[in-house]
Amino acid sequence: MNNTPQIRFKGFNNTWSQRKLGEVVEFYSGLTYSPDNVIKSNGTFVLRSSNVKDGEIVNADNVYVDSAVVNCSNVKVGDIVVVVRNGSRNLIGKHAQVKKQMKNTVIGAFMTGVRSKNSTFINVLLDTPQFDVEITKNLGATINQITTCAFKQMTFNMPVDPEEQHQIGTFFRTLDTTITLHQRKLEGLRELKRGYLQQMFPQEGEGVPRVRFSGFCGEWREVRLGELLIERNEQYVETAEYPLMSFVGNIGVVPKGEQYDRSFLVKDEDKKYKRTKKNDFIYSSNNLETGSIGFNRTGKAVISPVYSIFYSKNDSESQFVGLLSKRKDFINKMIRFRQGVMYGQWRIHEGDFLKIEILSPTIAEQNKIVEFFRNLDNQIAAQKDKLDGLKKLKKAYLQKMFV
Known about the structure:
Elements lengths: L16 E4 L5 E4 L8 E2 L4 E4 L4 E2 L2 E2 L5 E3 L14 E4 L11 E3 L7 E3 L3 E5 L3 H7 L3 H10 L9 H6 L1 E4 L3 H38 L21 E4 L5 E2 L3 E2 L8 E4 L3 E4 L17 E4 L4 E3 L9 E3 L5 E3 L4 E4 L3 H10 L3 H8 L14 H4 L3 E4 L2 H38 L3
Parallel strand pairs: 4-10
Antiparallel strand pairs: 1-12, 2-11, 3-7, 4-7, 5-6, 8-9, 8-11, 13-23, 14-22, 15-18, 16-17, 18-21, 19-20, 19-22
Helix pairs in contact: 1-4, 4-8, 5-8
């Protein structure tokens, strides 16, 4: 077995050694508390699974407890907090390093704290594929849990020289910082879009938006969707011109991924799907709340017949309704027409959908709004591509800089 990585920093040529994690780090346990111990604020902050996201510690569903019941160690700068028990298997092993002083803060009972002289390197070690292998080997048979004893026995190849560990840890910490900055920029752009979706459309009881392009005035007119959209109910078989695609929540019409493409196993050349074209507006009655609504940015395709599809004579109208569909008040209007008592059998009839009343500006103002959000979506997509590229780069380095 080759115990040296493919990529190393200059000046290091020693063979890496295999070590048990318990030999190189200290572990400490989290706080067990009852609901009666929870207070609104000014108590001890308890870090839980919800506070770990994308390798960072975040504020999310924060819990504070009465400091009088705390009987475990406070977290320190450099500590790594790891999820070791959770109802979801995918969350086991999720971790983050404490990068700043956090006074009066402990970890919860379903977390484990890891402390090391070279914790930045250990944090990277827990990002490697080997950690996932070790989790799978040591996961409880009936409970999604890694015990401290099992954690200590996990085995990794690592540099003998502490300086090599330090340089690896520093390299990945710099890369992680860059990824975090790009993640925040992406979240900022998405938040900006949410804000504009609120401000550039009239609020309930109002006839004009609070933010508007110059040159436009007067109240928006009330129209039924049937004045803007026409149902497209064209059922055809899959062809080269109209390939079979998927409709993905919050994204739209996309080519089927290989993991979903099983048409070569059961080929029904006569099966019919619904035809869709670029800028069609599409929704699924069952999954409105999870984003299964929007418009087709991709082009000609056939998709599952469970979807309702509409087009407009002026493409901006269907895209304008697509923007409206990102607002909760619009979704709530649709839900009022939903029929059926069981999930999976809910239905919003196309005729009822076309009766929904909305406020609409002139075509010229619609075009301005659609263009504005198209440019914003392009910025979001470009930023997401940058972020995805950095994550792929990190994944490649983890494979080549570890054994």
